[in-house]
Amino acid sequence: MEKSLSIGAAAGVLGVCVATLRNWHKSGILVPLFRTPGGHRRYGLDALARLVKPKDDLPRRTIAYARVSTHDQKHDLETQVERLKMECQSHGWPDAEVIADLGSGMNYTKKGLRRLLGLLFRQEVGRLVVMRRDRLLRFGAELVFELCRISGCEVVTIEPLDTDPRKTIVDDVMAVLTVFSARSNGMRSHSNKKALAAAA
User: Fold this and answer.
1) Strand order in the sheet with 125-130
2) pLDDT digits (tens, 9 = 90+) for 26-49
């Protein structure tokens, strides 16, 4: 099945509000690829790419994308950014722009990631450079790479992913546990604050 985006993600990369996409659906300008069992619209990448007018008069840029998961890894993020700059320099791409994100690989609303998706949809990126494929997203990176293919963007990875399937599974499980543990702690903290406020 063709890769698809939620209405919120589609609105973000097109630079419009969700209400605009609903109106476009009613008028037939942009019809969703399908609806989920819960009734949510899902938009196909091909249809979104056709809707965006390519900027043929502008040269395509090289974008390097860096990401770490937590604030404790900010130093690692700085190291990653410098490494990407050095790699781009050595490959003859001195004007490469680095987009850096701090957030989980399961967070699809990171500011930098959304900006990257918008640039890809507008066909402004000719080359995407990442340290490893999982630096984009822990799950769903294939969606971004499919968008790169549709928009004619070359993808360059500096380091290969670990090919040990057991380690990959362990890393994926740990990523899921970390995200949901953080959400659970956040909900507990919010509940405690409400209880304290009520008691006061």
Assistant:
1) 97-102, 61-68, 125-130, 154-157
2) 988 899 999 999 999 999 888 887
Catalytic residue status for 189 = no
Residue 195 scores a pLDDT above 80: no
- Token look-up 């006061």 returns 200
Q: Which of 81, 158, 150 lies closest to 120 in space, CA to CA?
A: 150
Domain-wise residue ranges, the chain: 4-51, 61-157, 163-200
pLDDT at 14: 81
Q: Please list, residue by residue across 110-130, b when 16 or more beta carbons sit within 10 angstroms of its beta carbon and e when fewer do.
A: bebbebbbbbbbbbbbebbbb
Q: Which fold has domain 4-51?
A: Multidrug-efflux Transporter Regulator; Chain: A; Domain 2 (1.10.1660)
- Active-site residue, from 4, 27, 69, 90: 69
Return the CATH architecture of domain 61-157: 3-Layer(aba) Sandwich (3.40)
Angle between helices 111-121 and 7-14 (to 10 degrees): 70
